[in-house]
Design a protein that fits this description.
- With about 180 residues, the chain is mainly alpha-helical.
- The protein has two domains: about 1-115, no CATH class; about 115-180, no CATH class.
- Helix content is about 55%, strand content about 10%.
- It is built from seven helices and four strands; from the N terminus they run ααββαααββαα.
- The strands form two sheets. Strands 1-2 form a two-stranded antiparallel sheet. A two-stranded antiparallel sheet has the order 3-4.
- The longest helix is centred in the first third of the chain and has 40 residues, at about 1-40.
- The N and C termini lie far apart (about 55 Å).
């Protein structure tokens, strides 16, 4: 009976410790999403739909549109492009063709990830890059492939990465925890 009490206390303590770490991260993510939603709400419904499809700034790719307030809209070669802030305007306009190409790629990735279940989409967007080929954006080669490694969902850019991911689970999980830098 004493062993059961000790075990219950230990498990309760472990649960409290895990929640103490996880809950602030969950709250911060919810705050980020609320901030993004507020920034996007300032756009017209048509522009909001375009910005939501693009999701990221083509100049600072780690910045979600809306995370720095209302996205800035440019028209490049007759096509709308959204930036995270006015500070990106000069870089976007300096290489208009590259900015437009990046915007189209981001919209394509967004459309591909939108086909996933809401849970998988959120996880793939949080991971952003393939766990085997860390410079390959998830959704850039079609629907990401989901595998389970040591009880954790991991996304890959394509089916061709499955065998490599499963052959070296520790390296794969390390890549998920340390996303690629551009």
């Amino acid at each position: 009976m004493k062993v059961t009490s000790i075990l219950s206390w230990f498990l309760s303590s472990a649960l409290v410790a895990a929640l103490a770490v996880a809950l602030p991260a969950v709250a911060a993510a919810a705050d980020d999403e609320a901030e993004i939603k507020t920034g996007l709400a300032e756009l017209s419904p048509a522009d909001r739909a375009l910005a939501e499809a693009q999701r990221y700034c083509p100049v600072i790719e780690s910045n979600r549109l809306g995370s720095m307030g209302t996205p800035v809209k440019l028209i490049i070669d007759g096509k709308p492009v959204f930036l995270c802030c006015a500070g990106c305007n000069s870089k976007a306009m300096a290489n208009r063709a590259a900015t437009l190409a990046k915007t189209q790629k981001l919209a394509k990735i967004g459309a591909t990830l939108a086909k996933l279940s809401p849970e998988d989409r959120a996880a793939a967007e949080a991971q952003r890059y393939c766990a085997v080929m860390p410079k390959s954006a998830l959704g850039s080669m079609g629907a990401p492939v989901k595998v389970m490694i040591e009880g954790q969902s991991v996304f890959l850019c394509c089916e061709g990465c499955r065998d490599m991911a499963l052959a070296n689970p520790q390296a794969t999980l390390a890549n998920v925890k340390q996303p690629a830098a551009k």
